[in-house]
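Board notes (copied after class):
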Amino acid sequence: MGRGSAGVGQGSAGEWRGWRQAAEEALYGPCGFYRRPEGPAGHFRTSVHASSLFAEAVARLLCRVDEALGRPAELAFVDMGAGHGELVSGVLEALPAEVASRARGYAVEHAGRPAALDDRDDRIEWCAEPPAGVRGVLFANEWLDNVPLDVAETDADGVPRLVLVREDGTESLGEPVAGADAEWLARWWPLGPVRCEDDVRGVLKEDDVPPPHGLRAEIGHPRDAAWARAVATLDRGLAVAVDYAHLADARPPFGTLTGFREGREVAPVPDGSCDLTAHVALDACALPGAGLLTQREALRALGVSGGRPPLALASTDPAAYVRALAGAGEAAELTAAGGLGDFGWLVQPVGIPNPLPSPPPSPPSGETGENGPLRRARGGLLVDVPDDEEQ
């Protein structure tokens, strides 16, 4: 890639490191991307920023969990990767008064509490780690895609090797994948002759054909572990991870690692100048009892629809019609096929029934339809859309 260096790391631009170590420093180090004053919203747009309808739908989900919990004295809403606190603030504002009186928000974020968030609002606690033993909802909107990962790539012999990177984005192949990395690849994202014994290079039989040179995969077990730790902080309630995702039957052959800066997709360079993100293998993250559905399915179950208001309303109440029309446009963006609507929702109940309905079954092979876009969308890849292309 050969991009210039902004010099955020302890090491020089010439130091070779795995992508996991390089991204950890570039995103969360002292001068990392997520510690910049403009926050994530200065560089990309999530469902939270697209419309307040998203926070209102999540608030309705929190109310369902409140009912399932028997209306506890304290109802927690834990916002993982909270940014500037937009989601947790919006959810608390959207709650009915009785529920809001018992609700407490926790914004989990590496960066400090932003000045824009009213310090007098003691309903929101700013913290570096999710609180343990709470009851309520833990919500991770586009958090897992920023948990740093190592990357594997097949060499000329079809052997998956770790990808090393310099601070300027230049890459090189390192040692063959081994240990937990090899085990995860073999189970969730096979690239060829990956073996989990001491000889991780594998042994090709005479009739074996190695995969093409240059196949790539992001090694996802750090995300699996991060999600399991987050879920374990709930005493009872619901954990939800929302992200662009892929599943085992349709992994992207060349990986998904990319960068974002000021609303545009850029080459991934671990120098602190851009976001570093990769799609999430949500099926690998899922714990027993979890459900997978699309954002479109989830939001429609929570009352968000892109249907147009009746035209008669334009005659009886023009202002209300305009407001309803604007809301329908925002709802359409949140549920759009090929965009935010195809994001995956990983729903993990903890000690309560799942408050979201299971999605209908996927169409039979060869048929089309919107029943299961998480499973069938455009080769199985759910894309993050640059700001300039979203509309």
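Comment from the instructor: The radius of gyration is 22 Å. Residues 33 and 273 are 6 Å apart (CA to CA).
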